[in-house]
From TrEMBL:
Its cofactor is Zn(2+). Coiled coil: none annotated. This is 3-keto-5-aminohexanoate cleavage protein. Keywords: Metal-binding, Transferase, Zinc. It holds the Pfam family BKACE. GO terms for molecular function: 3-keto-5-aminohexanoate cleavage activity; metal ion binding. It comes from Streptomyces malaysiensis. Signal peptide: none annotated.
Length: 352
């Protein structure tokens, strides 16, 4: 992304889109005070986050026994109820469905390709499904302090090991097929990117004609194979993202607020919620709603406006698709592909 002399002025930045992730698939009941269990509680969590200022909802579903649901019927039911309860929110289903171990001593793992493909058939359709690009280690506990997980299920050695050893399976066989299925049903992919190499893979997908749509993505700074918390890496990632992309910052635990504060100041968007963080300060718990309110407060302090639901849908370009590779590159602010015989840098043709 390019920065001009006036790019840090809040009146020149897009309004802030706040993602809320209040369903914490890695936690069990009792790990956080605001983990929804019943379907009514799932819906109420969405309503509460929306009323606090969130306009994008990252969705997982929990069974009554407290474990993450892998039943598509549960997602169908929740989607239908959310369309009624929070019609202005961007509804985004987590592409893992559920990665939590089935029981103590089980593996933390993403579901099979065929199962994840079923997310394209959820009815009513979500606005987005998150998609991982390239198989990658996802050791979510690498950056956790002992205090982060004290008293939670992840403090148990068996659960800790399960999450330490987790891998995201997302090779070309998966993402090429998944992108096609999502497009066929008008569902926007929301790219969850762990590092610069994955951003480069997405650019190649676009340049080779495998994806014709908006580039909406998260920079996932959770460590353990994903990006870490070094501000220089965050700045470099922002610099490398195309001007026409929509970028959200995602971190973990007590790094969420400072990483997001940088993102708000630089004009990107933010994600919060108990899936990422349980704490306000060391030893002081913080609900998903309170985390949304904190982002609103930071934005207000800097003078940056918070987007409404309808504004968030426009910023995210929900429902927008492109005809071909050239149109996609143009809408993303990327230079054209090299034409045969053309040397040097590729610039857009100037039309008189």
């Amino acid at each position: 992304m390019h920065f001009f002399d006036d790019s840090l002025y809040p009146e020149n930045q897009e309004k802030l889109v706040i993602q809320a992730a209040p369903y914490g698939p890695e936690w069990l009941p009792g790990d956080a005070d605001d983990l929804p269990l019943t379907m009514d509680e799932h819906v109420q969590a969405a309503v509460d986050c929306y009323n606090a200022g969130a306009t994008v909802l990252h969705i997982h579903v929990r069974e009554l026994d407290g474990h993450g649901s892998k039943r598509m019927s549960m997602f169908n039911e929740l989607m239908a109820r959310l369309r009624e309860a929070v019609p202005d929110m961007v509804l985004q289903i987590g592409g893992s469905i559920s990665f939590a171990p089935e029981d103590e001593g089980g593996d933390a793992k993403w579901l099979s390709y065929d199962t994840r493909h079923m997310l394209a058939d959820i009815t009513p359709h979500p606005d987005q499904v998150t998609i991982a690009i390239n198989t990658n280690q996802m050791n979510i506990v690498e950056l956790f302090d002992d205090e982060d997980i004290e008293g939670t299920s992840i403090a148990k050695p068996s659960y800790y090991k399960a999450y330490r050893d987790m891998v995201v399976e997302a090779g070309p066989e998966f993402y090429l097929e998944h992108l096609g299925r999502l497009r066929a049903n008008g569902i926007q992919p929301h790219f969850q990117l762990a590092n610069m190499a994955q951003l480069e893979t997405v650019e190649r997908l676009i340049r080779r004609g495998n994806y014709h749509g908006p580039l909406v993505l998260n920079y996932v700074a959770i460590g353990g194979g994903f990006a870490g918390r070094h501000p220089a890496d965050l700045i470099e990632f922002i610099r490398r993202v195309p001007d026409g992309a929509v970028l959200t910052i995602e971190a973990s635990m007590r790094a969420v607020a400072p990483m997001n504060a940088i993102g708000i100041a630089l004009g990107t968007h933010v994600r919060v919620g108990n899936e990422d963080n349980l704490w306000r300060h060391k030893g002081e718990r913080m609900s998903s709603v309170a985390q949304v309110e904190q982002m609103v407060q930071i934005a207000n302090t800097l003078g940056r406006e918070v987007a409404t639901g309808q504004e968030a849908k426009k910023i995210y370009k929900i429902g927008e698709w492109y005809a071909d590779t050239d149109e996609t590159l143009a809408n993303l602010g990327m230079v054209p592909n090299r034409r045969p015989g053309r040397r040097g840098s590729m610039l857009r043709d100037i039309k008189n």
